[in-house]
Amino acid sequence: MIAMTIITRRTSMISAKELRIGDLVKDKAGNIWRVGCVTGIRNESKSLVLEREVDDGIMKWYSGEDDVMPIEINDNILDTIYFKRDKGRDVYRGYGISIEIFDDGYYLSLRDLEDDLSDPIQIKNLHHLQNLLMDLYGHDINIDKLYGNTGE
């Protein structure tokens, strides 16, 4: 397993409505967790069952949505989830898509049937990228190198 430092900044909490089983999030200490279950979406008490690998198996944490934060997309995250940066260009490629880097962030461009580019979609957080790839292309991101990492 690769040791990786996740920088924890004060970012907004995640709404449970944005999350799917398998999405990665972090806690306030920077530990990375996988969403195992989301419950109570229709009422005020939205809760999550989060999981992470530990030495002797899987640890589960029953949490509220206020306890989890998004994992911000950055160059290290993209490298770790098997995106490769084009030499001399601000473009990452992986899973059949390209993510471009502009001054204010990372963007996914989509093509229509005439092969015209759409307006780029800004990707700020890992769970958004996970959900877009699943919705649009049916791809799961390989999260093996991230899952279970601690904020240490």
Blueprint (SSEs and pairs):
Blueprint: E1 24-27, E2 32-39, E3 47-54, E4 57-64, E5 68-69, H1 75-80, E6 84-85, E7 91-94, E8 97-102, E9 105-108, E10 121-123, H2 126-137
Antiparallel strand pairs: 1-2, 1-5, 2-3, 3-4, 6-7, 7-8, 8-9, 9-10
Descriptive keywords:
152 residues, mainly beta, five-stranded antiparallel beta sheet
Question: How would you sum up this structure, described in words?
Answer:
This protein is mainly β. The chain has a domain at 75-137. The chain has helices spanning 75-80, 126-137, and strands at residues 24-27, 32-39, 47-54, 57-64, 68-69, 84-85, 91-94, 97-102, 105-108, 121-123. The strands form 2 sheets. A 5-stranded antiparallel β-sheet has the order 4-3-2-1-5. Strands 6-7-8-9-10 form a 5-stranded antiparallel β-sheet. A hairpin with a 7-residue loop joins β2 and β3. The model is unreliable at 1-10 (pLDDT under 50).
Strand percent estimate: 25-35%
Distance separating the two termini: 14 Å
Number of strands: 10
The run of helices and strands is EEEEEHEEEEEH
Largest sheet entry: 5 strands, antiparallel
Shape: globular
